[in-house]
C-alpha cells in the first residue's frame, strides 16, 4: 500500500517516473525497475509501445518484452 504523498515505492522514485511520463524538462535517468514501472503505468493509460519507448529512451522491442513478461504468470504461480 502506498501512502498519499509518497515519493518512493519499493525502491521506485515516483517523482522521477512521473517526470519521465510527463515529458516536461530534461528526462531523468531511471533504473531499469523504474523504466518498467513507468512502462506499466503508461500501458495502463493506453499509450502505444512506440510512444512509451520514445519517452523512456528504450527500444520499442524492449517495451514489448516488458509487456509480455508482465502478462505472463511467474513460473510456479499456476495452479
Task: Write up this protein.
This protein has 79 residues and is mainly alpha-helical. It has a domain at 26-73: Arc Repressor Mutant, subunit A (Orthogonal Bundle), CATH 1.10.10. It is built from 4 helices and 2 strands. The mean pLDDT is 88.
Chart the SSEs and their pairings.
Layout: E1 8-9, E2 12-13, H1 14-22, H2 32-44, H3 49-56, H4 60-71
Antiparallel strand pairs: 1-2
Protein name: Homeodomain-like domain-containing protein
Summarize the structure.
Helices cover 53% and strands 5% of the residues.
Radius of gyration: 13 Å
DSSP E strands, number: 2
Low-pLDDT ranges: none
**CATH top-level class of the domain at 26-73:** Mainly Alpha
Coarse shape:
globular
Which sequence of strands runs across the widest sheet? 1-2
Percentage of residues in strands = 5-15%
Q: Structural class of the secondary structure composition?
A: mainly alpha
Helix content: 40-55%
CATH topology of the domain at 26-73: Arc Repressor Mutant, subunit A
Instruction: Provide the succession of SSEs.
Output: EEHHHH
> Quick check: average pLDDT?
88
Largest sheet: 2 strands, antiparallel
**Individual helix count:** 4
Gap between N and C termini = 26 Å
CATH architecture of the domain at 26-73: Orthogonal Bundle
Protein name: Homeodomain-like domain-containing protein
